[in-house]
Every structure is written in C-alpha cells, then in structure tokens.
Amino acid sequence: MADLLKIGKHEFSSRLFIGTGKYKDFAAMKAAHQASGAQVVTVAVRRLDLKAQGEAAMLNWIDKSMALLPNTAGCYTAEEAVRTCQLARELSMGDMVKLEVLGDQKTLFPDVEETLKAARVLVKEGFTVLPYITDDPIACKKLEDAGCAAVMPLAAPIGSGLGIRNPYNIRIILETVKVPVIVDAGVGTASDAAIALELGCHGVLMNTAIAAAKDPVLMASAMKKAIEAGREAFLAGRMPRKLYGNASSPLDGMIG
Amino acid sequence: MTLTVNGQQEQFPDGLTVRGLLAHLGITAERVAVEVNLRVVKRAEHPELRLSDGDKIEVVTFVGGG
C-alpha cells in the first residue's frame, strides 16, 4: 500500500517540500528539484519589477507536476499575510499556502498571535493552511483547532542549518495534534531530515540546506534518501535504547 | 489620471481598465496578480474594472523563496 502524505484534500508520495530561493540560477534550481523528487515547492509573492521584462519567468522552471505552496515570507502582520495569500491564490490557482508571520527580523521567529489570527481568516476563506510556527505544542494545537491542514514547527531559525534543536518538543507536538507535522526551517544536512522523520514527523520543508550546499543537486538527492530512510525507520519501529551491552551472537556452544 | 503602481506614482490615460493598465505596462496577465486599493482583482474582472484617479495598485508575481 502506498505510504501517502495527506494534507487536507491533497496527497503526496514525497515527504520533502523544497524551496525556490537562493539558487545561483533557475537551471540549478530545476536540477535540484528533479534530484529531490519533491512534489511540493514553495514560492514567494513579490511586486513585479515593472522595468525588467521576463521577470515572471521563474514558473517556467518549475515542473508542472509540482504543487505550488506560496508563502507569506516577510509578512509581520496578519493583515499583510492574508493579502499575500489572496494574491497568491490568484497567481497559483491553488488553495495551499504556507502561512509565515514573522515577529522579529533577527531571529525570524514566528509571531504566534498574528499567525493564529491570519490562520482563522484564511481557513474561513477556503485556503489549505500550512503555518510555520514555533516548536510549541500549545501554539500547534491552537492552529489545528483553527482548522489548519498541517502544522510546521521550526527545527531551528530559518536559514540557520542548526538541525532539530528540541526533539522533545517535536515529540510532544506529534502527540498533541492529529494533523500532519512538517518540520519547516533550520534543517542543515541529511541526518537532520532523517531525525525529523524518525521522530514521526510527516515531512520536512527546506530551502537553504539544499540551495546553499556546495552541490545542491547532490544534497537534494541526499535529502530525498534521508527522508525515505527516516520514514522507513519510523514505520519499522526502532529497538529500545539500553544502557548495557546485549550480545548479538549466542552465548551457548562456545569452544572450551 | 494619477495611479500608484507598485509604490510608483505615474500618469496614465483616463478610463483604463485593469487589463488596459497591464497592456499599457507591457505585462502579460497570466502570471501576475493585481490588487486595487487593497482588494484582489480576479482575472475575470480585469477587462471590466475601470481604474480611477488616485487608485493604488499592486502587481505581483512569484519569485524564489522558501
């Protein structure tokens, strides 16, 4: 049976969500996307540069089979985020949005209050809302109650590459909410992604970890494998941790 | 009439529709979204919605992001 990730009415066989920022050019981005096997791709909404022609060309470099997940990056209020989502829906013709309302320019930590406020409006307007949020089980529960289709707690600050700073909080979030938990932001390398899936997270969203690697295509491939390995290890159920040694070979029949 | 497009105030011919404005700016409408005075204008409304002096317009598109 296929192991699908279900987010609202959407289904994906890949658990890796990939970004479109920070690549050296669109060709490099496309190659990384292909190597990642991702089926969901994040994009940002910005003013069109009225002086530059061909500015809107990025979409030509995104595989048509990929689902667009527009973000509200750079928004600091619920109002701005809602406006951005409404524009994004007009652009993508899809209903999925990555809701990101920031509270601080230095840490890029989310503003929980504004995120919740925006989530309530967006759910009412029919969006499939995936909110980026602190690794706080209470905030995640409130977002689930508001009707979000998933919650996306951060592993570490956006673009930091520090990995999962608080795996215990992530575990509590997994026990607290029923919607999919996607780790968003802070993943640095393949093992970070594997750990997220081993913990039981349903997916990982990343941009910089791939785009800022020396070889983004190779890192995209590594992330694909790490996420598959982490998911399989989670489903397999890991052995219990033990303090002392426990021989793997029989103790009987040793030579005398 | 004076319109503010993406933060820039400029003069435009009177009576332009949203579609007319995009054509005037040389923009193909498929991959942009338009907001007039904080309200998103659906693509189907582009040919009908007439702009007025002082309107504030945002023309946005998708760019790279995470």
Question: Could you please describe the fold and organization of this structure?
Answer:
The complex is a heterodimer of chains A (256) and B (66). With 256 residues, chain A is of the alpha/beta class. Chain A is built from 8 helices and 10 strands. In chain A, strand 9 (182-184), helix 6 (190-199) and strand 10 form a beta-alpha-beta unit. In chain A, helix 1 (26-36) packs parallel to helix 8. The model of chain A has no long low-confidence stretch (mean pLDDT 96). In chain B, 24% of the residues are buried. In chain B, strand 3 and strand 4 form a beta hairpin. Chain B has a 5-stranded mixed sheet, with no helix packed on it. Chain A binds chain B through residues 19-23, 29, 42-48, 50, 53, 55-56, 58-59, 68, 70-71, 73, 83, 86-88, 90-92, 158-159, 185, 205-208, 211, and chain B through 5-8, 25-28, 31-35, 38, 40, 42-43, 58-66. Strand 4 (40-47) of chain A pairs antiparallel with strand 5 of chain B.
